[in-house]
Amino acid sequence: MPYRRALLRPAHPTRDYMPLVLAVLTAALGTLLLVGAAAGSSSSFIPLIGILLLVLGGVIFYYWRYE
C-alpha cells in the first residue's frame, strides 16, 4: 500500500472509550455498595443493587470489547 494511501486510511481506527469508562465507573459503584452493605450488615436491597451494577458493568465491558 502506498504511503499516501496508508495515511488516508489508518490501520487502527479510533475507538470510542466512553463505554469502557462507564463500565469501570458502574463496577466501582457496585463494589462500593457491596462493601458498604457488608460493613453495615443491613438487610436491604443495597447488596442486590451492588451485584446488579457489577453485572451491568461486565455487560457494558463485554459489549465494548467485542464491538
Automatic annotation (TrEMBL):
<protein>
    <submittedName>
        <fullName>LPXTG cell wall anchor domain-containing protein</fullName>
    </submittedName>
</protein>
<keyword id="KW-0472">Membrane</keyword>
<keyword id="KW-0812">Transmembrane</keyword>
<keyword id="KW-1133">Transmembrane helix</keyword>
<feature type="transmembrane region" description="Helical">
    <location>
        <begin position="45"/>
        <end position="64"/>
    </location>
</feature>
<feature type="transmembrane region" description="Helical">
    <location>
        <begin position="20"/>
        <end position="39"/>
    </location>
</feature>
